[in-house]
Amino acid sequence: MSSQRSRDNAEWISALTSTGQAQEAALADLREILVSGLRRGLAAWLEPHSPQLVSLAEETTQEALVRILAKLDTFEGRSRFTTWAYKVAIRIALTELRRKQWQDVSLDGMLEPGREEGREASVLDPQAGPEATVEQRDMLALVGRILQEELTERQLAMMQAVALRGVPMEALAQKLGIERNALYKMMHDARLKLKRRLAREGLELGDVTATFEGSNTSGGRVVKGERT
Questions:
Q1: Which one has a higher pLDDT value, 13 or 157?
Q2: What pLDDT is recorded for position 110?
Q3: In angstroms, rounded to a whole number, what is the distance separating the alpha carbons of residues 222 and 228?
Q4: Does 28 share its domain with 120?
């Protein structure tokens, strides 16, 4: 039987889709790999060897193994199987870590408006030249005005919480007392409003992101939805 050190992608898939001892051995090997990887990876967020880190790594691995088994048919072989499996696990771990960080924050705290100057500083490109900085400020002001005019106060607060402050949708939905899917629909409706208004202004979402990614080379300024 192949060990965890010698299995190639095909052998991992074969073992995990089998039954009996072959599958049990593969799961045990994969569990060991994931726990070890998560303990190293999560050390960037939690104190190494702390009970919280160890517990999160163990709990995450259990959930990750279930998801990995359910998603085996989506593995395309573009990377090592263990690399793909680790990505599944670390996404689960970071989502749970974010949820725990926000679980003791009140709903008002989640929806509290951020400081405008701090928000601007987090979006503007510090490497941009004077002309590009002016264009970014104009675009930011335009998007801010559109958000204020098109969204309800609650929609705006939720968009800011999720998009700007990184509040997990699960945590926000729990505080609101609604299902995650209901919150997702509310966010989806808000994005549609934004997209339609941008279209009326002669813009697309790509124009907005290009302004802040430095890919806009026209040199023009954005004022009230028009380039001059």
A1: 13
A2: 58
A3: 7
A4: no
